Amino acid sequence: MKTTLLSALSAAAIFIASLAQAEADLSALFRTERTSLDNLPEERVARFLSFGRKSRQSPENKVQFSKSFLDAQPSAKGGEQFSCLAEALYFEARGETVKGQFAVAEVIMNRVASKRFPNSLCAVINQGTGRKYQCQFTYTCDGHKEVIREPKAYERVAKVARLAMDGAVSKVTDGATYYHTTAVRPSWRRAFTQTARIGVHMFYRDDRYRTAASQ
Predict the structure, then answer these.
(1) What keywords does the record list, in alphabetical order (predicted)?
(2) Which helix or strand (DSSP H or E) is residue 205 part of?
């Protein structure tokens, strides 16, 4: 009887130890996953979280390319990556149509998704900054201080930035990662496929490096 009892107690002790180890392993896994999520760029997390919503309803049906639609949206907020995108849209596209503003936002998002460019909005937008007129987005290296003088225009483009980061619209430019205004004719355009003309901007895709948005 004593031997049976000892065996049962030993088995119970082993089982309890196994449970404790399993709990410790699970906690370590959760900590690792949390650390990985914390290190992901904000816009990529937003895209992941919005995947289910996009599969149930076409993004294009949720967005109206009008100022009245933007004015009806709640005030936009976000962290550093959001601020970078909102600022870029203000200086690059505040005078564009609403659809044109979404298109410029999409180009920046497409660059983040491409392995040929940095993997965060701020890094994409500030690529080359510090070399006058050698950057990717001219306003960051033209030697002029970035001052937001039109708060209403900034409020609207900030909403565009928030919606774009949340995955509310996509494929406006058919996967473009480059654009220029109709006032110029840069030589690099010949190397790419023109995908759209929206407002005063022409959009291009490099077919050698297709992003998920252009598939």
Answers:
(1) Hydrolase, Signal
(2) strand 201-205
Q: How far apart are CA 62 and CA 64, in angstroms?
A: 7
Rounded Cα gap, residues 139 and 133, in angstroms? 9
Spatial CA neighbour of 165 closest among 118, 102, 209: 102
Give the long-range contacts of residues 48-57, CB within 8 A, separation 24 or more.
Answer: 50/166, 50/167, 50/168, 51/167, 53/167, 54/167, 54/170
Residue 203 has a CB neighbour count (10 Å cut-off) of 26
pTM: predicted TM-score of the whole model, two decimal places: 0.69
Its sign, for the CA torsion 160, 166, 172, 176, is positive
In tens, the pLDDT along 109-166 reads 999 999 999 999 999 999 977 667 678 888 888 888 889 999 999 999 999 999 999 9
The domain locations on the chain are: 58-214
